[in-house]
Structure formats: C-alpha cells, structure tokens
Amino acid sequence: MHVSAQANFQAGPDRVAQMLADEDFVAAKVRASGATSQHVDVVGTSEGAFTVTTRRQMPTTSIPAQFRSVVGSSLEVRQVEAWEAAEGDVRRGTVVVEITGAPVRMTGTLRLAGNGDGTSTQRYDGQLKASVPIFGAAIEEATAGAVRAAIEAEERTAADWLTD
Fold it and tell me: Architecture of 2-163 per CATH?
C-alpha cells in the first residue's frame, strides 16, 4: 500500500532541519504521537547528514479489536530517518518503520524543501507492507492511519517548538 503525507512548518528548511536533528524535539514529537515509553537517538547534526532513530511503545487502541488479541496491548515501533546533507534549500532522506513482533514494514523517502516564503514542507512517500495472509490489507490500512497520525503529531509539536 502506498502511503504519502506532508507536514508544513512555519520556518525555513535550515531551521526545520535543526529542529528535526534535536533530540529534545524528537522526544516531544514521539510523546505527542501517544507513545507510552520511548528511546531517541540522533547521530550527526543538521549542518550535514544526520540519522534519527526512535523506538516507542504504542498502545493498540487504534488497531481494530479483532487484531488486538494477536498483537497484545502495546506495540514497539522502530523508526529510522536518514537525512542527507542539504542541497540548497532541499534536503532528502529515507525512512523505515518497523513494528517489532509483527510482519509490518514501511520504507520510503523524505523530502524537506523551502517554499520561498520562509516556510517549509516535509513530504513522506512510502510503501507499507503487512505480510499477513487474509488480514494484510486491513492491517496495512490501520498502520497507514497510525503513520499519518504520527506525522500530524509532528506538525503540531513543530508549530509549538518553532514559536518558542
């Protein structure tokens, strides 16, 4: 299943990249996504390439009831974003999201670009695959909704972060 989403920021791409590479911001956006526990690791800085790795425990309340008995009361979600150094006001990267203990994985690309007016847009495009016979499509749809909700939480957290 193809998943795409975008987040808009009220700052230029350099400022947004600084925010995305800030462990405190990453921890705040993970908490805002509903995580019950988390681990954040940032390697590198926004002046060049950087990688953001998060592990979070997520409640399964957004998963359809018929699948909760299979996955339990929480899921561990591991996400890795690898950002390349900027080329002008554009920065590209890759993203991988895996759910530990479940055959669900998303791989995709990231693009952060300035809009020419002091704002930026981050675009996510990926392929989500749930290797579960019969129920794969339903699990993919539920996971895609969770991915979009996490991106919306990031956008909300960034709006507060950038005004401080």
Answer: 2-Layer Sandwich (3.30)
CA distances to 28, 62, 77, 151, 161 from 146, rounded to whole Å, are: 17, 8, 11, 9, 22
* pLDDT higher than threshold 80 for residue 112: yes
B/e letters for 96-121, b = 16+ CB within 10 Å, e = fewer, are ebbbeebebbbebebebbbeeeeebe
- pLDDT, tens digit, 9 for 90 and up, residues 24-52: 999 999 999 888 889 999 999 999 999 99
pLDDT score at 2: 94
Phi and psi at residue 147, in whole multiples of 5°?
A: -65, -45
Q: By three-state DSSP, how is residue 14 classified?
A: helix
Helix (H, G, I), strand (E, B) or coil at 48: coil
CB 26 within 8 A of CB 16: no
The domain segmentation of the chain, as residue ranges, is: 2-163
pLDDT score for 125: 96
pLDDT interval class at 64 (50, 70, 90): low
Helix (H, G, I), strand (E, B) or coil at 97: strand
